[in-house]
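Case study 2.
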Amino acid sequence: MGINKRAKVLFLLFFLGFCFIMIAYVSLIWYPALPFDSKSKREVTELLGENTGTIVKLTTEENVDWYGPQANQASAAEAMIRAVTEKGWTFIQQEGAGYFFERRKEKLIITSQMWTGNYVLFRIPAGVL
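Prediction:
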């Protein structure tokens, strides 16, 4: 293989690698903003992608823990309710994006929000899970 041909092949490999990286990076730009600042979109998608179907802690900010599973909204709610009830809370009801729990005389409200079509985020007071 001549030097000129080898240089073209190396350039093509470099260019394709660069394009792949840019596509992966740019695809996250279109994701909506996260409701917290301490993690990037990439970090969150990696955490959620590694834990399909299970609830995973994403971050803690201002005395709030943010959790999320990679699941549709119904499966995500089931995973969150299961995790909270395992900590001794009793699920009472859901109203919109709010999930209501009780334990003895304590009350707990957990809210959810769809971050993208694939991810639901739960806002849980710090220390519950």
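The beta strands are 56-61, 64-68, 90-95, 98-103, 106-114, 120-125.
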